[in-house]
Amino acid sequence: MDMMTLWHLNGWEFAALAFAALLVGFSKTAVSGANTVSLAIFAAVLPAKASTGVLLPILIAGDVLAVLTYRRHAHWPTLWKLFPAVAAGVVAGTLFLVWADDGIVRISIGAILLMMAGVTVWRRRTADATGEPDAVTTRAGRAKARSYGVLGGFTTMVANAGGPVMSMYLLSAGFRKLGFLGTSAFFFLIVNTSKLPFSAGLGLIDADSLLLDAVLVLFVVPGALLGRWAVNRINQRLFEQLVIAATVVGGVQLLVP
After folding, report:
1. pLDDT digits (tens, 9 = 90+) for 148-200
2. pTM attached to this predicted model
3. Full DSSP string of 205-242
4. Do residues 181 and 73 lie in contact, with contact meaning Cβ atoms separated by under 8 Å?
5. Other C-beta atoms lying within 10 Å of the C-beta of residue 98
6. Do residues 220 and 65 touch, judged by C-beta distance below 8 A?
7. Mean pLDDT throughout 206-210?
8. How far from chain centre, in Å, is Cα 92?
9. Largest pairwise CA distance in the chain
10. Are 121 and 58 in contact (CB under 8 A)?
11. Torsion sign, CA atoms 144, 122, 37, 102
12. Number of H helices and number of E strands within the chain?
């Protein structure tokens, strides 16, 4: 894999990656979607495609911590409806990575994220929030789950950017804060783990990347603890605004050369 190893990073580059790893932990237990900033940092320090292979195990570490924290709040009917569509998206994303260059990947994902943010803002302004998620109980809800699932699988495979897409889906489905975090925690632990053989097969994960991961994962834990402390101090409206803002920032970062 064409990437810098741990031994080739200078102090500022390592500090940037360490901060990005800390932000992964924070995003998994507080503001889902904020790790798009981590994605941008990794892509700036490392070659864009190679960075996705380094970031994946760090995301899985954050997913494990999130599941341990919010496991009682997952909404499994939503998860079961999403997984088949996500699997199709992961396969499509793998095929896309075979021929797409970094520029095409960045533009595609950035455009999708901004579109999802716009749709979610519009939906939140024109519909009342429901206390219990019911988006998978109607034909329209199932169609929406499938479309977001495919997009989420595709974006998480090509750029580890599925978080904002699924955040937009869960917000539009009416999830409250803890249900949102619990459902997304299990979703991404299962999805990211299933991506490992695909990433390894594409040469995005190797001994060098795993060595770098072993060091950076140490910064995920304090980020997760900080997020757990902060989430109890963020009200529902601010939580939704932060998720949408993080999505927009991530989308713009991917579109800017």
Report:
1. 888 888 888 877 777 777 877 887 777 888 888 899 899 999 989 998 998 88
2. 0.78
3. --HHHHHHHHHHGGGHHHHHHHHHHHHTTS-HHHHHHH
4. yes
5. 7
6. yes
7. 87
8. 17
9. 53
10. no
11. positive
12. 11, 0
